[in-house]
Structure formats: C-alpha cells, structure tokens
C-alpha cells in the first residue's frame, strides 16, 4: 500500500542518514568513508555538501518509490475491479446454466421418457 511504501522510504532515509552520520568519526585520524568507499573531505562545508547531496538523493528516491507505489496501487485496484466483474459474470453464467445431460437422463424414469427428450438419441435408436 501507499503507507507501506512511504514507511519503507522513511526507513531507507533514516538508514542513509545514520550511515552518513557514522561515516566520519572526529579525531580517529582516518579519512571519512562515503557510500562508495574512502572520500577525502577537507572541511566541514564539504561534509555538509555531501550530506545535503545524500539528503537530496534520498528525497528523489522517496519520490520515485512513491510514484512506483501509486502506479502499482492503481493497477492492483484495476485488477480487483476486473476480478469482481469476472466473479459476477461467473455467478450469472452458473445461474442460467442448464442441467447436465447426466442429470437430465438420471431424472427420466423410463426409456420412453428419455426417448421424448430432444437431447437424447440413444433410447430412441435402440427401440
């Protein structure tokens, strides 16, 4: 559903944000790590720009997920409507369906009654 897609996007955003926050540990003497590996950032402003870029990427990805979820939701609703139409058609067909030949023949008590039926030819040909 749409809320599930939004929750997934929010979770992905928080994971990316937490990963970005854990990338640089001040004072450890190691260069900060980006999502694609080591990145040499020379200042806090570059780190801020990198985080801003990641935020933008997460927002764009969230929008894409939202669009995909909307498209899928519309298709699922269309399929549900079609399934409902097919179910109603099936019920209607079953209601107007004639009895099977086996039921018809079994309901005839005599060969003469069977022979008078327009669908049966076996008794008439054997008489």
Largest sheet features? 2 strands, antiparallel
The shape is rod-shaped
In which order are the strands of the major sheet placed?
A: 1-2
Rg: 35 Å
How big a fraction of the residues is strand? under 5%
- Give helix % range: over 70%
The CA-CA distance between the termini, in Å, is 68 Å
Mean pLDDT over the full residue set: 75
Poorly predicted runs are: none
Question: Which structural class best describes the helix and strand composition?
Answer: mainly alpha
Q: How many β-strand stretches?
A: 2
Question: Your description of this structure?
Answer:
The chain has 127 residues and is mostly helical. It is 72% helix and 3% strand. The protein has 5 helices and 2 strands. Strands 1-2 form a two-stranded antiparallel sheet. Strand 1 (33-34) and strand 2 (37-38) form a beta hairpin. It is rod-shaped and about 105 Å long. The protein starts with a helix and ends with a helix. The model has no long low-confidence stretch (mean pLDDT 75).
Task: List key phrases describing it.
two-stranded antiparallel ribbon; rod-shaped; 127 residues; mainly alpha; single chain
What's a quick, concise take on this entry?
With 127 residues, the chain is mainly alpha-helical.
Question: Helices, strands, pairings?
Answer:
Elements: H1 2-23, E1 33-34, E2 37-38, H2 44-96, H3 101-107, H4 111-115, H5 122-126
Antiparallel strand pairs: 1-2
Helix pairs in contact: 1-2
